[in-house]
Write a structure and sequence with these properties.
This protein is mainly beta. About 5% of the residues lie in helices and about 45% in strands. The radius of gyration is 28 Å and the shape is elongated.
Protein backbone atom coordinates (compact mmCIF):
# COMPACT_ATOMS: atom_id res chain seq x y z
CA UNK A 1 0.00 0.00 0.00
CA UNK A 2 1.41 3.42 -0.95
CA UNK A 3 0.93 6.32 1.53
CA UNK A 4 1.80 9.92 0.72
CA UNK A 5 4.22 10.69 3.57
CA UNK A 6 5.27 14.04 2.07
CA UNK A 7 1.72 15.28 1.69
CA UNK A 8 1.81 17.25 4.96
CA UNK A 9 4.62 19.43 3.66
CA UNK A 10 2.83 20.04 0.38
CA UNK A 11 -0.62 20.73 1.79
CA UNK A 12 -0.04 22.84 4.90
CA UNK A 13 -0.75 26.07 2.98
CA UNK A 14 -4.02 24.52 1.77
CA UNK A 15 -5.10 24.03 5.40
CA UNK A 16 -4.23 27.59 6.44
CA UNK A 17 -7.92 28.26 7.12
CA UNK A 18 -10.60 25.68 7.87
CA UNK A 19 -14.06 27.16 7.58
CA UNK A 20 -16.44 25.80 10.26
CA UNK A 21 -19.43 23.99 8.83
CA UNK A 22 -17.79 23.34 5.44
CA UNK A 23 -17.01 19.71 4.63
CA UNK A 24 -13.77 19.27 2.68
CA UNK A 25 -12.61 16.38 0.52
CA UNK A 26 -9.11 15.48 -0.66
CA UNK A 27 -7.79 12.62 -2.76
CA UNK A 28 -4.77 11.10 -1.01
CA UNK A 29 -3.60 8.97 -3.91
CA UNK A 30 -4.32 5.89 -5.99
CA UNK A 31 -2.79 2.41 -6.10
CA UNK A 32 -3.06 0.23 -9.20
CA UNK A 33 -3.32 -3.54 -8.84
CA UNK A 34 -4.14 -6.19 -11.38
CA UNK A 35 -7.30 -6.90 -9.40
CA UNK A 36 -8.36 -3.26 -9.70
CA UNK A 37 -7.69 0.22 -8.32
CA UNK A 38 -7.65 1.45 -4.72
CA UNK A 39 -8.10 5.14 -3.89
CA UNK A 40 -7.86 6.97 -0.55
CA UNK A 41 -9.99 10.00 0.22
CA UNK A 42 -9.79 12.32 3.24
CA UNK A 43 -12.97 14.03 4.48
CA UNK A 44 -12.83 16.65 7.23
CA UNK A 45 -14.98 19.34 8.80
CA UNK A 46 -15.06 21.59 11.89
CA UNK A 47 -18.38 21.87 13.71
CA UNK A 48 -19.54 23.75 16.83
CA UNK A 49 -21.49 21.70 19.37
CA UNK A 50 -22.52 23.18 22.72
CA UNK A 51 -19.85 25.90 22.59
CA UNK A 52 -17.12 23.35 21.88
CA UNK A 53 -15.39 23.00 18.51
CA UNK A 54 -14.94 19.48 17.19
CA UNK A 55 -12.79 18.23 14.35
CA UNK A 56 -14.49 15.55 12.25
CA UNK A 57 -12.47 13.54 9.77
CA UNK A 58 -11.97 10.11 8.28
CA UNK A 59 -10.16 8.38 5.45
CA UNK A 60 -12.02 6.05 3.12
CA UNK A 61 -10.41 3.25 1.13
CA UNK A 62 -12.36 2.52 -2.07
CA UNK A 63 -11.72 -0.50 -4.29
CA UNK A 64 -12.65 -0.22 -7.99
CA UNK A 65 -12.73 -3.52 -9.93
CA UNK A 66 -10.96 -3.69 -13.33
CA UNK A 67 -12.62 -1.86 -16.23
CA UNK A 68 -14.59 -4.09 -18.59
CA UNK A 69 -15.15 -3.35 -22.25
CA UNK A 70 -18.07 -4.22 -24.49
CA UNK A 71 -18.92 -3.60 -28.12
CA UNK A 72 -22.13 -2.08 -29.44
CA UNK A 73 -22.56 -1.36 -33.16
CA UNK A 74 -18.88 -0.73 -33.70
CA UNK A 75 -18.33 1.39 -30.58
CA UNK A 76 -16.31 0.42 -27.54
CA UNK A 77 -17.73 1.27 -24.11
CA UNK A 78 -15.73 1.09 -20.85
CA UNK A 79 -17.70 -0.02 -17.81
CA UNK A 80 -16.81 -0.89 -14.24
CA UNK A 81 -18.38 -2.24 -11.10
CA UNK A 82 -19.49 0.04 -8.28
CA UNK A 83 -16.61 0.70 -5.84
CA UNK A 84 -16.55 -0.88 -2.40
CA UNK A 85 -15.60 1.75 0.23
CA UNK A 86 -14.64 1.26 3.88
CA UNK A 87 -13.28 3.51 6.59
CA UNK A 88 -9.56 3.04 7.10
CA UNK A 89 -8.87 1.51 10.50
CA UNK A 90 -8.27 4.17 13.14
CA UNK A 91 -4.87 2.72 14.02
CA UNK A 92 -3.74 3.35 10.42
CA UNK A 93 -4.84 7.00 10.17
CA UNK A 94 -1.58 8.35 11.58
CA UNK A 95 0.23 6.98 8.51
CA UNK A 96 -1.60 9.47 6.33
CA UNK A 97 0.38 12.65 6.80
CA UNK A 98 -2.51 14.73 5.46
CA UNK A 99 -4.46 13.85 8.61
CA UNK A 100 -1.66 15.36 10.68
CA UNK A 101 -1.74 18.47 8.50
CA UNK A 102 -5.48 18.89 9.14
CA UNK A 103 -4.95 18.48 12.89
CA UNK A 104 -2.12 21.01 12.90
CA UNK A 105 -4.26 23.54 11.05
CA UNK A 106 -7.17 22.94 13.43
CA UNK A 107 -5.03 23.40 16.53
CA UNK A 108 -3.37 26.55 15.22
CA UNK A 109 -6.63 28.15 14.09
CA UNK A 110 -8.92 27.55 17.08
CA UNK A 111 -7.81 28.60 20.58
CA UNK A 112 -9.90 25.93 22.31
CA UNK A 113 -8.05 23.16 20.52
CA UNK A 114 -4.53 22.40 21.68
CA UNK A 115 -1.93 20.02 20.36
CA UNK A 116 -1.82 18.73 23.91
CA UNK A 117 -5.27 17.22 23.31
CA UNK A 118 -5.10 14.48 20.68
CA UNK A 119 -8.28 14.17 18.63
CA UNK A 120 -7.92 10.40 18.44
CA UNK A 121 -10.47 9.54 21.11
CA UNK A 122 -10.84 5.94 22.20
CA UNK A 123 -13.21 4.01 19.89
CA UNK A 124 -16.81 4.85 20.62
CA UNK A 125 -16.11 7.59 23.15
CA UNK A 126 -16.89 10.38 20.70
CA UNK A 127 -20.20 8.84 19.72
CA UNK A 128 -21.10 8.74 23.41
CA UNK A 129 -20.81 12.53 23.45
CA UNK A 130 -22.80 13.33 20.33
CA UNK A 131 -24.20 11.31 17.45
CA UNK A 132 -23.16 12.55 14.02
CA UNK A 133 -23.02 10.88 10.61
CA UNK A 134 -19.75 9.92 8.94
CA UNK A 135 -17.02 11.10 9.00
CA UNK A 136 -16.17 9.81 12.45
CA UNK A 137 -16.05 12.30 15.27
CA UNK A 138 -12.64 12.85 16.85
CA UNK A 139 -13.07 14.79 20.07
CA UNK A 140 -10.82 17.73 20.87
CA UNK A 141 -11.30 18.99 24.43
CA UNK A 142 -11.59 22.73 25.00
CA UNK A 143 -8.39 24.31 26.27
CA UNK A 144 -8.42 25.20 29.96
CA UNK A 145 -7.10 28.72 30.51
CA UNK A 146 -3.59 28.43 31.87
CA UNK A 147 -2.95 30.22 35.14
CA UNK A 148 0.66 31.36 35.03
CA UNK A 149 0.60 32.78 38.56
CA UNK A 150 1.53 30.97 41.74
CA UNK A 151 0.03 32.59 44.85
CA UNK A 152 1.46 31.54 48.20
CA UNK A 153 2.12 32.59 51.79
CA UNK A 154 5.74 33.26 52.71
CA UNK A 155 6.21 32.53 56.40
CA UNK A 156 9.73 33.94 56.47
CA UNK A 157 8.77 37.32 55.07
CA UNK A 158 5.27 37.32 56.59
CA UNK A 159 3.79 38.14 53.19
CA UNK A 160 1.23 37.01 50.67
CA UNK A 161 3.02 36.72 47.35
CA UNK A 162 2.28 36.18 43.65
CA UNK A 163 4.91 34.78 41.30
CA UNK A 164 4.86 34.78 37.50
CA UNK A 165 5.72 31.16 36.68
CA UNK A 166 6.76 32.01 33.13
CA UNK A 167 9.84 33.89 34.37
CA UNK A 168 9.87 33.08 38.13
CA UNK A 169 9.60 36.76 39.06
CA UNK A 170 7.70 38.05 42.11
CA UNK A 171 5.01 40.33 40.71
CA UNK A 172 3.13 41.24 43.88
CA UNK A 173 3.44 40.99 47.67
CA UNK A 174 1.30 42.09 50.59
CA UNK A 175 2.25 41.96 54.29
CA UNK A 176 -0.53 40.11 56.13
CA UNK A 177 -1.16 39.52 59.86
CA UNK A 178 -0.86 35.74 59.55
CA UNK A 179 0.89 33.45 57.11
CA UNK A 180 -0.45 30.26 58.66
CA UNK A 181 -3.39 30.35 56.25
CA UNK A 182 -4.83 28.70 54.33
CA UNK A 183 -5.91 31.14 51.62
CA UNK A 184 -8.69 31.38 49.06
CA UNK A 185 -8.70 33.30 45.77
CA UNK A 186 -11.97 35.08 45.05
CA UNK A 187 -13.34 34.44 41.52
CA UNK A 188 -13.63 37.42 39.22
CA UNK A 189 -15.32 37.95 35.86
CA UNK A 190 -12.10 39.48 34.59
CA UNK A 191 -8.51 38.33 35.01
CA UNK A 192 -6.34 38.47 36.97
CA UNK A 193 -8.10 37.38 40.15
CA UNK A 194 -6.37 39.64 42.66
CA UNK A 195 -8.53 39.42 45.79
CA UNK A 196 -7.14 36.85 48.21
CA UNK A 197 -8.64 35.87 51.58
CA UNK A 198 -6.26 34.54 54.23
CA UNK A 199 -7.35 32.77 57.42
CA UNK A 200 -6.02 34.77 60.36
CA UNK A 201 -5.62 32.48 63.35
CA UNK A 202 -9.31 31.76 63.79
CA UNK A 203 -10.14 35.29 64.92
CA UNK A 204 -10.49 36.97 61.53
CA UNK A 205 -10.10 36.62 57.77
CA UNK A 206 -7.72 39.05 56.08
CA UNK A 207 -8.77 40.32 52.63
CA UNK A 208 -5.89 41.49 50.41
CA UNK A 209 -5.67 42.94 46.91
CA UNK A 210 -2.63 41.75 44.96
CA UNK A 211 -3.28 44.40 42.32
CA UNK A 212 -2.90 47.36 44.67
CA UNK A 213 -0.68 45.31 47.03
CA UNK A 214 -2.70 46.31 50.08
CA UNK A 215 -4.69 44.73 52.88
CA UNK A 216 -8.30 45.72 52.19
CA UNK A 217 -9.86 44.71 55.51
CA UNK A 218 -9.94 42.17 58.33
CA UNK A 219 -13.31 40.46 58.82
CA UNK A 220 -13.66 39.46 62.48
CA UNK A 221 -15.14 36.08 63.41
CA UNK A 222 -15.71 36.53 67.19
CA UNK A 223 -18.33 33.77 67.40
CA UNK A 224 -15.61 31.14 66.95
CA UNK A 225 -13.39 29.84 69.74
CA UNK A 226 -9.74 30.85 69.63
CA UNK A 227 -8.51 27.24 69.67
CA UNK A 228 -9.18 26.18 66.12
CA UNK A 229 -7.56 25.44 62.77
CA UNK A 230 -8.94 26.56 59.41
CA UNK A 231 -9.55 23.73 56.96
CA UNK A 232 -9.95 26.00 53.95
CA UNK A 233 -11.60 29.04 52.36
CA UNK A 234 -13.67 28.64 49.18
CA UNK A 235 -16.05 30.79 47.13
CA UNK A 236 -19.19 30.37 45.10
CA UNK A 237 -18.64 30.49 41.34
CA UNK A 238 -19.80 34.11 41.09
CA UNK A 239 -17.50 35.19 43.93
CA UNK A 240 -20.37 36.71 45.94
CA UNK A 241 -20.20 34.28 48.88
CA UNK A 242 -17.21 32.91 50.78
CA UNK A 243 -17.03 29.96 53.18
CA UNK A 244 -14.48 29.18 55.86
CA UNK A 245 -14.44 25.68 57.37
CA UNK A 246 -12.77 25.28 60.77
CA UNK A 247 -12.14 22.52 63.27
CA UNK A 248 -12.09 23.14 67.04
CA UNK A 249 -9.20 21.82 69.09
CA UNK A 250 -11.70 20.82 71.76
CA UNK A 251 -15.51 20.49 71.74
CA UNK A 252 -17.61 23.46 72.82
CA UNK A 253 -20.26 23.25 75.56
CA UNK A 254 -22.72 21.66 73.11
CA UNK A 255 -20.24 19.08 71.83
CA UNK A 256 -19.61 20.83 68.51
CA UNK A 257 -16.16 20.26 67.04
CA UNK A 258 -16.26 22.45 63.93
CA UNK A 259 -18.10 25.09 61.98
CA UNK A 260 -18.77 26.51 58.53
CA UNK A 261 -18.76 30.31 58.42
CA UNK A 262 -20.52 31.99 55.48
CA UNK A 263 -19.52 35.50 54.35
CA UNK A 264 -21.07 38.12 52.12
CA UNK A 265 -17.93 38.56 50.00
CA UNK A 266 -19.21 41.75 48.37
CA UNK A 267 -19.90 43.62 51.61
CA UNK A 268 -17.24 41.63 53.49
CA UNK A 269 -19.21 40.52 56.54
CA UNK A 270 -20.20 37.28 58.26
CA UNK A 271 -23.74 36.17 57.41
CA UNK A 272 -24.08 32.84 59.23
CA UNK A 273 -22.26 30.16 61.22
CA UNK A 274 -23.23 26.50 61.01
CA UNK A 275 -21.86 24.31 63.83
CA UNK A 276 -20.89 20.65 63.36
CA UNK A 277 -20.38 17.68 65.65
CA UNK A 278 -17.42 16.62 63.49
CA UNK A 279 -14.08 18.28 62.65
CA UNK A 280 -13.67 19.49 59.04
CA UNK A 281 -10.09 19.13 57.80
CA UNK A 282 -10.67 20.05 54.13
CA UNK A 283 -13.34 21.92 52.14
CA UNK A 284 -13.89 21.86 48.39
CA UNK A 285 -16.35 23.71 46.16
CA UNK A 286 -18.04 21.93 43.27
CA UNK A 287 -17.16 23.47 39.88
CA UNK A 288 -20.84 24.25 39.24
CA UNK A 289 -20.92 26.38 42.40
CA UNK A 290 -23.91 24.67 44.01
CA UNK A 291 -22.29 22.28 46.49
CA UNK A 292 -19.52 22.16 49.05
CA UNK A 293 -17.75 19.00 50.19
CA UNK A 294 -16.31 18.89 53.70
CA UNK A 295 -13.86 16.09 54.47
CA UNK A 296 -13.74 15.34 58.17
CA UNK A 297 -11.24 14.02 60.71
CA UNK A 298 -13.30 10.82 61.15
CA UNK A 299 -12.98 10.03 57.39
CA UNK A 300 -16.55 11.06 56.62
CA UNK A 301 -17.69 13.46 53.91
CA UNK A 302 -20.42 16.07 54.33
CA UNK A 303 -22.38 17.42 51.38
CA UNK A 304 -23.41 21.06 51.86
CA UNK A 305 -26.07 22.55 49.60
CA UNK A 306 -25.27 26.22 48.99
CA UNK A 307 -28.74 27.24 47.79
CA UNK A 308 -30.55 25.90 50.87
CA UNK A 309 -27.68 26.51 53.28
CA UNK A 310 -27.91 23.01 54.76
CA UNK A 311 -25.50 20.15 55.31
CA UNK A 312 -27.91 17.52 54.08
CA UNK A 313 -25.72 14.39 54.07
CA UNK A 314 -22.77 13.02 56.02
CA UNK A 315 -21.47 9.53 55.14
CA UNK A 316 -18.34 7.43 55.51
CA UNK A 317 -15.77 7.51 52.72
CA UNK A 318 -14.85 3.87 53.39
CA UNK A 319 -16.17 1.63 50.64
CA UNK A 320 -16.73 -2.13 51.02
CA UNK A 321 -14.08 -4.04 49.10
CA UNK A 322 -11.66 -1.10 49.10
CA UNK A 323 -8.80 -0.77 51.54
CA UNK A 324 -9.25 2.78 52.78
CA UNK A 325 -11.28 5.96 52.86
CA UNK A 326 -10.21 9.57 53.15
CA UNK A 327 -6.94 10.12 54.99
CA UNK A 328 -7.17 13.32 57.11
CA UNK A 329 -3.40 13.75 56.80
CA UNK A 330 -3.44 13.52 52.99
CA UNK A 331 -4.37 15.89 50.18
CA UNK A 332 -7.76 15.98 48.44
CA UNK A 333 -8.91 17.65 45.22
CA UNK A 334 -12.17 17.95 43.28
CA UNK A 335 -11.84 17.06 39.62
CA UNK A 336 -12.74 19.98 37.29
CA UNK A 337 -15.55 17.92 35.75
CA UNK A 338 -17.26 17.84 39.15
CA UNK A 339 -17.86 14.08 39.20
CA UNK A 340 -15.26 12.88 41.66
CA UNK A 341 -12.78 13.63 44.42
CA UNK A 342 -9.17 12.50 44.34
CA UNK A 343 -7.14 12.01 47.51
CA UNK A 344 -3.96 10.25 48.62
CA UNK A 345 -4.12 7.54 51.24
CA UNK A 346 -1.65 4.83 52.20
CA UNK A 347 0.42 5.20 49.05
CA UNK A 348 -2.60 5.15 46.75
CA UNK A 349 -4.56 7.61 44.65
CA UNK A 350 -8.16 7.13 45.73
CA UNK A 351 -10.93 8.17 43.32
CA UNK A 352 -14.27 8.85 45.03
CA UNK A 353 -17.41 9.11 42.89
CA UNK A 354 -19.56 11.97 44.19
CA UNK A 355 -22.78 10.53 42.75
CA UNK A 356 -22.52 6.91 43.91
CA UNK A 357 -20.59 8.07 47.02
CA UNK A 358 -18.07 5.28 46.73
CA UNK A 359 -14.37 4.82 46.08
CA UNK A 360 -14.33 3.55 42.50
CA UNK A 361 -10.55 3.33 41.91
CA UNK A 362 -7.37 2.79 43.91
CA UNK A 363 -4.11 3.37 42.05
CA UNK A 364 -0.78 2.63 43.73
CA UNK A 365 2.00 5.22 43.59
CA UNK A 366 4.54 2.38 43.51
CA UNK A 367 6.51 3.77 46.48
CA UNK A 368 7.93 1.69 49.36
CA UNK A 369 5.45 1.40 52.21
CA UNK A 370 7.89 3.10 54.57
CA UNK A 371 7.65 6.36 52.63
CA UNK A 372 4.37 6.08 50.67
CA UNK A 373 2.06 7.03 53.52
CA UNK A 374 3.78 10.40 54.02
CA UNK A 375 4.14 11.30 50.33
CA UNK A 376 2.62 14.60 49.19
CA UNK A 377 0.29 14.87 46.20
CA UNK A 378 -0.91 17.74 44.00
CA UNK A 379 -3.20 17.75 40.95
CA UNK A 380 -2.78 19.46 37.57
CA UNK A 381 -5.18 22.28 36.73
CA UNK A 382 -7.15 20.12 34.30
CA UNK A 383 -7.35 17.13 36.67
CA UNK A 384 -5.69 14.76 34.20
CA UNK A 385 -2.58 14.12 36.29
CA UNK A 386 -1.37 14.03 39.86
CA UNK A 387 2.17 14.59 41.05
CA UNK A 388 3.56 12.67 44.01
CA UNK A 389 6.71 13.67 45.87
CA UNK A 390 8.43 12.58 49.06
CA UNK A 391 11.29 13.32 51.45
CA UNK A 392 13.64 11.01 49.54
CA UNK A 393 13.35 13.08 46.35
CA UNK A 394 11.03 10.72 44.48
CA UNK A 395 8.78 12.44 41.93
CA UNK A 396 5.97 10.49 40.23
CA UNK A 397 3.56 11.66 37.54
CA UNK A 398 0.35 9.61 37.34
CA UNK A 399 -2.62 10.02 35.01
CA UNK A 400 -5.93 9.98 36.85
CA UNK A 401 -8.23 8.07 34.48
CA UNK A 402 -6.53 4.66 34.68
CA UNK A 403 -3.77 5.26 37.21
CA UNK A 404 -0.95 4.84 34.73
CA UNK A 405 2.45 6.01 35.96
CA UNK A 406 3.75 8.31 33.23
CA UNK A 407 7.10 9.28 34.72
CA UNK A 408 9.32 8.62 37.72
CA UNK A 409 12.47 10.45 38.75
CA UNK A 410 14.54 11.26 41.79
CA UNK A 411 16.05 14.63 42.64
CA UNK A 412 18.29 13.30 45.41
CA UNK A 413 16.76 15.53 48.08
CA UNK A 414 13.39 16.25 49.66
CA UNK A 415 11.15 17.56 46.88
CA UNK A 416 7.74 19.18 46.59
CA UNK A 417 5.81 19.65 43.35
CA UNK A 418 2.65 21.58 42.55
CA UNK A 419 -0.10 21.06 39.99
CA UNK A 420 0.69 23.14 36.95
CA UNK A 421 -1.28 24.01 33.80
CA UNK A 422 -3.22 21.53 31.64
CA UNK A 423 -1.05 18.63 30.65
CA UNK A 424 -2.99 16.16 28.52
Amino acid sequence: MRFLYLLALLTLPVFAQIEPGVRQYMNLGTDEYYQGTVTYELTYEVVLIKDTKFLLFNVKECFYPPIKSKYLKGYIFATGYEPVCNDVDESMLSKFSAVGAVEAAFYSQFPDGSEEYGPFASPGSAQDVVSLPSPRLKTVSPRTPVNDRLIFLDGLGNTLMAMDMSNLQIISNVVVPSTVGPLGIRPSATLPQNEVWVANGGTAVTVSDLGTQQVVTNILTPQLPVGLATAGIVFTKDGKTAFEAVKFFSPDASGNQGALVAFDAVNRKVTSTLLFKFQPVAILAAPDGYSLYLLNADSTITYYDILSGTADLTISTFTPGKSGGFNPAGQVYVHPDGTRLLWSSGGNLEVFDLTTRKVIHQFSFGLPSTIAASAAMTMSQDGNRVYISDSLGDVITMETDAGGILMTSNTGTATSVFGGPPTK
